[in-house]
Each structure stands twice: as structure tokens, then as C-alpha cells.
């Protein structure tokens, strides 16, 4: 009994520790201007939607009060984030699953070297390749394009996807597709009919990781985009008014920015729980 | 003529193997782990290509033909039911492929028929993980049956079942094969399964075919020492024998038998032979020489006595009514006609 | 003398009653085998005796002392695991010596006792090897040696042979039994293999669904099973069950196919116990194919075992029974079966219990 209470307290403390920053941001996004700066912080306050309304240009007339010049750029950039992170995730997972299947099932020459090579792209700190990428992208005309960032994120996530998916596919007995092949299917059909449904939990886990990585990416988005293809992270950081930093709107932007990942993770949580327990899939 | 013949020489797994499975036959391929049994099955099914040699099904050369075009059914050791599909959809799976494309009405009819034969009608809407081992086994068989394949390839399908269920499935499998009139090519490492199921048994060791014959032939006239040891429970007894001057001297047993009574073969025996005798062909309580009872094992239907003679332990099968106690001295007799002779170097049976 | 006593031992995992009310005495020098299908509670019982699992209810006594609350190390028992549980970084010698070192036995004494045990097990030439260099049979012997070297009050063995292949298992079975004859250590052995139980045990404890079904010598449980479960579980294949309808003394029993059979002793028993519906239990070897037997049927399949044939005979629609026959010739088609009544049992179909 004592243990149960102690355990409960411990869990509560941990939750407070981890959730406090999130609470802070969400609360700030609903606070009125003076309350945001109140010391000690106000836990009870009169809420307002004004930061959201200005963020999405619904009440642009309010924006000027906070020193904002012109329209909020958040909506198009948020859309960019969705498109770029979404497409790059789909591509990484799809290509990753196919290559992982090949590595898992066929005798690929130099398999271990290749796998290591794939992983090695992950070992490079992105900052090292920032400038070269900028130069190459400028030469290719990929600066500030959607396709440019999609390709980049896909490249970075692919290595991760291949490794993760190989683990999941290794767990699926070979006999699954062999049985299908004897039963009248081609290998390709067997892959879609039998392996893919089995690998769903792995795909979900991989997709969540890829999405989070692409969604949160800041550095390349900052240096490789400016207007057209700029994503949300650098743009939130740049929300400023003439009279100092517009904390209320930043908080609203961050809150909105958090939502898609939370929703997606929530949607695939059924698979995720199974997928994250790598290697203990019941046969 | 409907038969499968294959010849190939895969350097490690299989060496120069030639084997014919006849139409409507239950052929069991028996051997220890790593003998090449599963490889053989996979080559017939097309999941593996032979390095050398040919595979024929119904007289047609199958080399290079994709697994799906061979019309074999493969039943795997671990059943391989698709966990995301219901039993019904598992059974329908082969019939929904492009190759066997069947309309849903016909699929339903066939599945109902198969489910009736296998007594799994009540399971059709369940998912595989809700089934017991025996039920999963039946569904796996059903998936093989729905499209009437030319040959059923079975890779140790009973080995995941517990002992009791295995015995029951043995009888069911055998009568199923008879009723279907189908050709079964069945792989196992269990000699009891091989003996009881097979119309013929093929014994394989280290990729080399040792003997093909009816269960009785393999048991009573094993081609070599390996087959003699591998088939039968408990193992055959082996003794060193020295034929000399019309007598056969048996190593530790200090026993001299009249050679002409035990050796009916025409050729002259080498100066040293291996003599094999099955545990049921040694009789206790008769004969002139004695041994000491070392151990008695009650197996239920009969008993195994381990009899110590010199440094040799003989395994003797006795009826369950017989009572012996450890340490007791008992006379024993070898049934003369049942002695088998093997060449000590080639290990092949003589005569 | 009593060495181990279990009193009303029960274990519950959540809502699952793994072991229910097990009461049993194991005597000094006895080889007792717990036998049952997986999940019957036999391993849990063994683990409770070892102290690896705490009983929900009941008590355990070892050598007269109540040990229910003692940790495993203080019970003076040895446990041989299914997967040997040898330490891979130690040689066979060090593995065997390990329990002695834990007790602080002097060096020369350790040397002497390890060699002694190794000699009994025929391991002398393997002592310097590590587990990875040993065959599975030898690994099991080292595990046994580690158990023996401490001279415990009781040996507990959890399916020690199930990791071995069939041929080796047979050999080890005989060696283990012979070892027991020689050193006479009290042993409690758990297995799901009825052949192992039959051939090794002084007494067999048959368990199912957490309860003891029957305790007796191999011969008793084989010939006089107390209920249908024991009758079916022991023997390969198990006992045949033939439903009968008692017609009255002097009139015999009616079979499912409408014919009737007679046996005075059975009729008397049925009369005394006042039964109507009953189940005849008869082992395959007590039935034989005869010119004029009592039960008619047709052969479904013949399974040759080399020294005998095992028949599956259908005696009524869907009712298949097994018959052993020592003759070499194979019978087929319609046959009749002779019953050796002195080896037949009668069961109550409602309770499943033997009627005697």
C-alpha cells in the first residue's frame, strides 16, 4: 500500500517535470498580453483566442496592437511543413521498406558493407554538410523549393528507415511469402498481401520517427529556404513584432505546430505499442 | 503416369540424389537434422533451385519453373497461417491468386467441403491466433487441399504438436491421404512417424540417400549401420563378430554360434563383422549363457531390460508381464535367424 | 523415512489457479516423477519446493523442517534446469565446483569432491572444457554434477532431458535411472513425457489443471488409472474408450453398433455399482485381432512399428480404437477383436472416475 502511494507520487512528479514546458507554452498561447509576463506566473487567468486569431489572419486588425507588420506568414508555412514532412515520410518509409525487404530476404553482395554505408550517412553532423548542400542546391536550382527539402529529409531518414524496417522484416518468417509463392502468387504479390500487413506495426513506428525528424528539422530549413518553401520551425522563431518578441503568437504557433505529430502518433498508437517492442513480436 | 523424379547433386546439402515419388503414394523422407530433407522438399517446390540435376513432376522437367507454376502444396512445420486473415480467408488465399483465380461462390463451396473433411467448420471466422495447435495444423492442411495440387509437400507438420495430439493426427493424416488418393511427400526426423505413415520410407543422411523401401524392409533389412541405428526404438544392438572355423564368436559375449545357422548368405564373411540384433530378438530366460540385469525400464506396453554381459550392455525388449530385478543373473538367447551382418568398414549390410 | 512433504500446497497467479491443494509425501531415496501436460502445474509445484515461487497457501517440509518461508539457498536442495543453466565463462570443473565455493569448502576438499562426481558421471576427461565445447548430453551431465556435488537433501529436476534429441534422450534416461539406483538420492523429477515417467519413476504423480489426478507406481497408473484423464495420458497410444450401455446381469453390455458383449466380472461390477451408461477402457495391447472376437470393426489404417503393428479400427461410425498385434501379416477390411477382460477398466462417463 505504501509502495503504491509512493509509486503514484513518483509518477506524478515525473509527469509534472516533463509536462510543465508543454503546459507553459499552451497556457501562454491563451493568455492576455500582460498575464504572459506576470511574476509570479498566473495559473488562473482570463483566456483569449487573440493570438490564434492573429496567427491565422482571421482578425488581422488585432495584430497591429502587438506590433505586427503586415499579415502573419504562419498559415502558408505550416502548410509547407505538412507537405514537406508528409511527402518525405511517405517516401522514406516506402523506399526503406522495399530496400529492407531486399536486405532481409536476398543474398545481397557486400550486404554488411552496404548496410554500414547506409548508416554512415547518419553519423555526419548535419552542420558539416550545411554549406556544401547550399552550394549544390543553388547550382541545381533547388533552393527554396519543396522538392529540395523533401529530397533532403528523405535522404537523411532513409538510412534510419532501412535499418529499422530490416529488423521488423527479419522477424517475419520467410515461410510466409514462400507459402504464398507455392500457393500461386508472385513474390511481388506475396510482399503486398502477406509481408506488408505483418510489417504494419514496424511501418507505423518508422513513420512516426521519420515524421518527427522531418517535422522538427530547423537548420536546413533555415539555410535552404527563404519564402516559398519555408517550413514552420524557422518561421515561428522569426515571429517578431516591432515592439519586441510576440510571445503570445509564438506560443500559439508552437501549440498548433505540436498538434499534427500528436494526432498522427495517436492514430497509429495501436501499431506503435507493438512496434516499439522491437524483436519481441510473437510468432 | 504421374510421378516426381529428381536428380541433382548439391555439393553439401544433397549428393547425387535420385528418388521417385509414385502417384497416390505416401512417401516419407526420414533423416536426422541437417540430412538435407527440407532442402529436398524445397527443391521439389521450386523455392530452391538445384545446382545440378533435374526435377520432374508428371514427367515434365521443372527446373527454372517458378514455385507458383508447379502446382505443389507446401505444408510448413510452423503452419504459416497469416495472422491478419481469418481462417476462411487463409483457406481462400491460394484461390484468390491470379493464377488460380476462382469466383467467390466456387471458393465458398470448396472451403465448405474442405472444412467438413477436416472438421474445422466452426472455426472459419476465427483468426489463427485463437486456434489450438491441432486446429492450426488442420487449417494449414486445408489451405493445401483447396486447390487439389498434384503433390502435397509436408515439412515435419506434426513436430510442433504435443505427443498425444501427434498420435491422433497421424491416423487422421494417413486416412486423409487414402481418401483423397493424393500424393504425399512427407519429411520427418521421427522414425516412428516415418514407419507408421509411409507406404515407403526413404532414409537420408548427410545428403546421401541410404535406403528406400517399405517400413518393414527398412526395419528388418536395413541397408547399412546408419539405417539400422536410426530406425527402431530402442536402437539395434551391435556386437563385434569373428567368424572362424564354422563358428561365429561374438566379442564380449563369449558366445560361439554355429555359423551355418546364422549366416545364410552365399559370400564368405570377412574375418571381422558387425553383428546387429534388434532388442525383441533377444530372449531372456532361455539359453545357456547368462548376463546381469543392469536396468529395467517399464514403457507401459512392454519393458526394456539392459543386460550386462562383460563390458557390453544389450538392450532387450521383454513383455510387460516379465519381472526382473536389477543385479539378477538371467540366461539369454539370440534368435539365430534374426542376426544381421554388416561390413565393419563400409558399414553396409552383407547378404 | 519421509524426506519431503507438501501440505495443501496451492498457487494462484492472478485469477489463474496454477496449483490446487497438492498434498504428497516423498520418501528417502525415492524417485518421484510429476507428470502432466504443459500448464498442469507440475513445474510450479517444483519451483515452490525449490523456493523459487512462494505458495499462496499450504506448507512445505524438507527433512522434517518447515521451509515454506526459507529462501532457496537455505533449503539444501539442488535444482537441475531444462536448459542446463551452466555458466558459459567457466570450465566444466569450475561449474561443478561453483556451489561448493559458495559454501566456502576448502580447496582440496573441492578438488576431491568434484573429481568424485566427475568419475560417477564419466566426465573426468572433460573437466577442463567450457560448456560451448561440450555436447548437449555432456552439458546435462555437468549440470547434474553441479547438483550432486553438494549432496543435497533432494534433487529437483525440471524436464532435464527435453533439450536432447530422441536417441540421446533414451540413453540419458537409462543413465539417469542407473545413477539413481547407484547413489539412491531422493529425486523429484518433472516431465510431460509419459515414457520418461513410466521408465524412471518409483512413483508417478499425474497432474492436470493444477490438481493431482493419481499417485502410484508406473504399473498402477498404467493398469489401474483412476480416471479417464490418466488412462488417456499414459500409454502411447493412450487407452481406448468404448461407450457401453449396461443391460443387466446375464444380458451383458450394448455397444454403439447395437451388438452386445458379455463379461461376467464386469457385469457383476456394473450391477453392484448400479451403473447404466459406462465407458470401457482397454489398452491397445489387450485387444487382439481374432477369428471370433467380441467386437467387430473394420481396419482404417495399419501402422507398422517393426516388431508389431498398430491398427486403427473403426467399431462404430466415427469411433476409432487402436489395436496392437504382434503378427507380421497385415490385416485389412472387416475384423473382429478379442478383449482380455482381466485388463479392462470401467469408467463413469459423467464423473470420468474409474468404477471398481
How is this structure best summarized?
The complex is a heterotrimer of chains A (283), B (351) and C (356). Chain B has helices at 37-45, 87-92, 104-118, 133-145, 163-180, 191-197, 215-220, 225-230, 259-262; strands at 4-10, 14-21, 26-30, 54-57, 60-61, 72-75, 151-155, 184-188, 200-205, 208-213, 237-244, 247-250, 255-258, 273-277, 282-298, 302-309, 312-319, 329-334, 340-342.
Explain what you see:
The complex is a heterotrimer of chains A (283), B (351) and C (356). Chain A is mainly α and 283 residues long. Chain A has helices at residues 2-30, 33-36, 50-55, 60-63, 74-105, 111-120, 126-140, 146-171, 175-182, 187-216, 219-224, 232-237, 247-267, 269-275; strands at residues 240-241, 244-245. In chain A, a hairpin with a 2-residue loop joins strand 1 (240-241) and strand 2 (244-245). In chain A, helix 1 crosses helix 13 (247-267), helix 5 packs antiparallel against helix 10 (187-216) and helix 8 (146-171) packs across helix 10. The longest helix of chain A is centred in the first third of the chain and has 32 residues, at 74-105. Chain A is globular and about 70 Å long. Chain B has 351 residues and is of the alpha+beta class. Chain B has helices at residues 37-45, 87-92, 104-118, 133-145, 163-180, 191-197, 215-220, 225-230, 259-262, and strands spanning 4-10, 14-21, 26-30, 54-57, 60-61, 72-75, 151-155, 184-188, 200-205, 208-213, 237-244, 247-250, 255-258, 273-277, 282-298, 302-309, 312-319, 329-334, 340-342. In chain B, the strands form 4 sheets. Chain B has a 6-stranded mixed β-sheet, with helices on both faces. A 5-stranded antiparallel β-sheet of chain B has the order 13-12-11-14-19. A 4-stranded antiparallel β-sheet of chain B has the order 2-1-4-5, with helices on one face. Chain C has 356 residues and is α+β, with helices and mostly antiparallel strands. Chain C has 2 domains: 2-233, P-loop containing nucleotide triphosphate hydrolases (Rossmann fold), CATH 3.40.50.300; 240-347, Nucleic acid-binding proteins (OB fold (Dihydrolipoamide Acetyltransferase, E2P)), CATH 2.40.50. At the A-B interface, helix 9 and helix 10 of A face strand 6 of B. Chain A: It is a multi-pass membrane protein. Chain A: InterPro entries: BP-dep_ABC_trans_perm, MetI-like, MetI-like_sf. Chain A: Belongs to the binding-protein-dependent transport system permease family. Chain A: Its main location: membrane.
Amino acid at each position: 500500500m505504501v509502495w503504491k502511494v509512493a509509486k503514484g507520487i513518483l509518477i506524478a512528479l515525473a509527469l509534472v517535470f516533463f509536462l510543465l514546458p508543454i503546459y507553459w507554452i499552451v497556457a501562454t498561447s491563451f493568455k492576455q498580453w500582460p498575464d504572459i509576463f506576470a511574476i509570479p506566473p498566473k495559473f488562473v487567468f482570463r483566456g483569449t483566442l487573440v493570438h490564434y486569431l492573429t496567427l491565422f489572419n482571421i482578425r488581422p486588425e488585432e495584430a497591429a496592437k502587438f506590433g505586427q507588420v503586415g499579415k502573419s506568414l504562419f498559415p502558408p508555412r505550416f502548410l509547407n511543413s505538412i507537405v514537406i514532412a508528409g511527402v518525405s515520410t511517405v517516401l522514406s518509409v516506402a523506399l526503406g521498406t522495399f530496400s529492407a525487404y531486399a536486405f532481409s530476404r536476398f543474398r545481397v553482395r557486400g550486404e554488411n558493407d552496404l548496410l554500414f554505408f547506409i548508416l554512415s550517412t547518419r553519423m555526419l553532423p548535419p552542420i558539416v554538410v550545411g554549406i556544401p548542400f547550399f552550394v549544390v542546391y543553388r547550382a541545381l536550382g533547388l533552393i527554396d523549393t519543396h522538392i529540395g527539402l523533401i529530397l533532403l529529409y528523405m535522404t537523411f531518414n532513409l538510412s534510419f528507415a532501412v535499418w529499422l524496417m530490416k529488423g521488423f522484416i527479419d522477424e517475419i518468417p520467410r515461410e510466409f511469402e514462400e507459402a504464398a509463392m507455392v500457393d500461386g502468387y508472385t513474390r511481388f504479390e506475396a510482399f503486398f498481401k502477406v509481408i506488408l500487413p505483418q510489417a504494419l506495426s514496424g511501418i507505423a513506428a518508422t513513420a512516426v520517427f521519420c515524421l518527427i525528424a522531418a517535422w522538427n528539422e530547423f537548420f536546413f530549413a533555415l539555410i535552404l529556404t527563404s519564402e516559398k518553401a519555408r517550413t514552420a520551425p524557422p518561421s515561428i522563431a522569426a515571429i517578431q513584432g516591432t515592439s519586441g518578441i510576440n510571445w503570445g503568437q509564438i506560443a500559439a504557433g508552437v501549440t498548433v505546430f505540436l498538434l499534427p505529430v500528436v494526432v498522427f502518433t495517436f492514430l497509429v498508437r495501436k501499431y506503435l505499442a507493438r512496434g516499439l517492442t522491437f524483436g519481441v513480436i510473437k510468432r | 503416369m504421374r510421378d516426381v523424379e529428381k536428380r541433382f547433386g548439391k555439393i553439401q546439402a544433397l549428393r547425387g540424389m535420385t528418388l521417385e515419388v509414385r502417384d497416390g503414394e505416401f512417401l516419407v523422407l526420414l533423416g536426422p537434422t541437417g540430412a538435407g530433407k527440407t532442402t529436398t522438399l524445397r527443391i521439389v517446390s521450386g523455392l530452391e533451385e538445384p545446382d545440378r540435376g533435374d526435377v520432374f513432376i508428371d514427367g515434365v522437367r521443372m527446373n527454372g519453373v517458378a514455385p507458383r507454376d508447379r502446382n505443389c502444396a507446401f505444408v510448413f512445420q510452423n503452419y504459416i497461417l497469416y495472422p491478419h486473415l481469418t481462417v476462411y480467408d487463409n483457406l481462400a488465399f491460394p484461390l484468390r491468386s491470379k493464377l488460380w483465380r476462382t469466383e467467390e461462390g466456387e471458393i465458398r463451396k470448396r472451403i465448405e467441403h474442405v472444412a467438413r473433411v477436416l472438421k474445422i467448420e466452426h472455426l472459419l471466422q476465427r483468426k489463427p491466433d485463437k486456434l489450438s495447435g491441432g486446429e492450426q495444423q488442420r487449417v494449414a492442411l486445408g489451405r493445401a487441399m483447396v486447390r487439389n495440387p498434384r503433390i502435397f509437400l509436408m515439412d515435419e507438420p506434426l513436430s510442433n504438436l504435443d505427443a498425444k495430439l501427434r498420435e491422433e493426427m497421424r491416423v487422421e493424416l494417413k486416412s486423409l491421404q487414402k481418401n483423397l488418393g493424393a500424393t504425399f511427400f512427407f519429411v520427418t526426423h521421427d522414425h516412428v512417424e516415418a514407419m507408421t505413415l509411409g507406404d515407403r520410407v526413404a532414409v537420408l543422411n548427410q545428403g546421401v540417400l541410404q535406403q528406400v523401401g517399405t517400413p518393414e524392409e527398412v526395419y528388418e533389412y536395413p541397408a547399412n549401420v546408419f539405417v539400422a541405428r536410426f530406425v527402431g526404438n530402442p536402437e539395434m544392438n551391435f556386437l563385434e563378430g569373428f567368424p572362424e572355423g564354422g563358428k561365429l564368436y561374438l566379442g564380449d559375449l563369449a558366445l560361439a554360434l554355429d555359423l551355418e545357422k546364422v549366416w545364410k548368405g552365399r559370400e564368405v564373411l570377412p574375418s571381422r563383422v558387425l553383428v546387429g540384433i534388434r532388442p525383441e530378438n533377444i530372449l531372456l530366460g532361455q539359453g545357456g549363457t547368462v548376463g546381469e540385469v543392469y536396468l529395467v525400464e517399464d514403457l507401459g506396453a512392454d519393458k526394456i531390460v539392459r543386460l550386462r554381459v562383460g563390458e557390453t550392455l544389450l538392450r532387450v525388449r521383454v513383455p510387460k508381464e516379465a519381472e526382473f530385478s536389477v543385479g539378477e543373473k538371467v540366461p539369454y538367447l539370440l534368435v539365430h535367424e534374426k542376426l544381421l551382418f554388416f561390413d565393419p568398414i563400409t558399414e553396409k549390410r552383407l547378404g | 523415512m519421509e524426506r519431503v512433504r507438501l501440505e495443501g500446497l496451492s498457487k494462484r497467479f492472478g485469477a489463474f489457479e496454477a496449483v490446487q491443494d497438492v498434498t504428497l509425501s516423498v520418501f528417502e531415496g525415492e524417485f518421484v516423477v510429476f507428470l502432466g501436460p504443459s500448464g498442469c502445474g507440475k513445474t510450479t509445484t517444483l519451483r515452490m519446493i525449490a523456493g523459487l515461487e512462494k505458495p499462496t497457501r499450504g506448507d512445505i517440509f524438507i527433512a522434517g523442517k518447515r521451509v515454506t518461508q526459507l529462501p532457496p539457498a537455505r533449503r539444501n536442495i539442488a535444482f537441475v534446469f531444462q536448459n542446463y543453466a551452466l555458466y558459459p565463462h567457466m570450465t566444466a570443473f569450475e561449474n561443478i565446483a561453483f556451489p561448493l565455493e559458495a559454501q566456502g569448502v576448502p580447496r582440496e576438499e573441492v578438488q576431491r569432491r568434484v573429481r568424485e562426481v566427475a568419475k560417477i558421471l564419466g566426465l573426468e576427461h572433460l573437466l577442463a572444457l567450457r560448456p560451448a565445447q561440450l555436447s548437449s548430453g555432456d552439458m546435462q551431465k555437468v549440470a547434474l554434477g553441479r547438483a550432486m556435488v553438494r549432496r543435497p537433501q533432494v534433487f529437483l529436476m525440471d524436464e532435464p532431458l527435453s533439450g536432447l534429441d530422441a536417441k540421446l534422450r533414451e540413453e540419458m534416461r537409462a543413465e539417469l535411472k542407473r545413477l539413481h539406483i547407484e547413489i539412491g538420492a531422493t529425486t523429484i523429477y518433472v516431465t510431460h513425457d509419459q515414457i520418461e515417467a513410466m521408465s524412471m519413476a518409483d512413483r508417478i504423480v499425474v497432474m492436470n489443471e493444477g490438481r493431482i489426478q493419481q499417485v502410484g507406481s508406473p504399473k498402477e497408473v498404467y493398469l489401474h488409472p483412476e480416471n479417464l484423464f490418466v488412462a488417456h495420458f499414459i500409454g502411447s497410444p493412450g487407452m481406448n474408450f468404448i461407450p457401453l450401455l449396461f443391460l443387466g446381469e446375464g444380458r451383458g453390455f450394448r455397444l454403439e453398433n447395437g451388438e452386445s458383449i458379455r463379461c461376467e466380472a464386469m457385469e457383476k461390477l456394473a450391477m453392484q455399482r448400479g451403473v447404466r451408461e459406462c465407458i470401457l477402457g482397454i489398452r491397445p495391447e489387450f485387444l487382439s485381432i481374432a477369428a471370433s472376437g467380441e467386437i467387430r470393426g473394420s481396419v482404417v489404417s495399419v501402422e507398422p512399428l517393426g516388431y508389431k503393428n498398430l491398427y486403427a479400427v473403426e467399431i462404430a461410425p466415427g469411433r476409432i480404437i487402436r489395436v496392437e498385434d504382434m503378427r507380421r501379416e497385415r490385416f485389412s477390411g472387416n475384423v473382429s477383436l478379442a478383449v482380455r477382460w482381466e485388463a479392462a477398466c470401467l469408467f463413469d462417463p459423467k464423473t470420468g472416475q474409474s468404477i471398481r
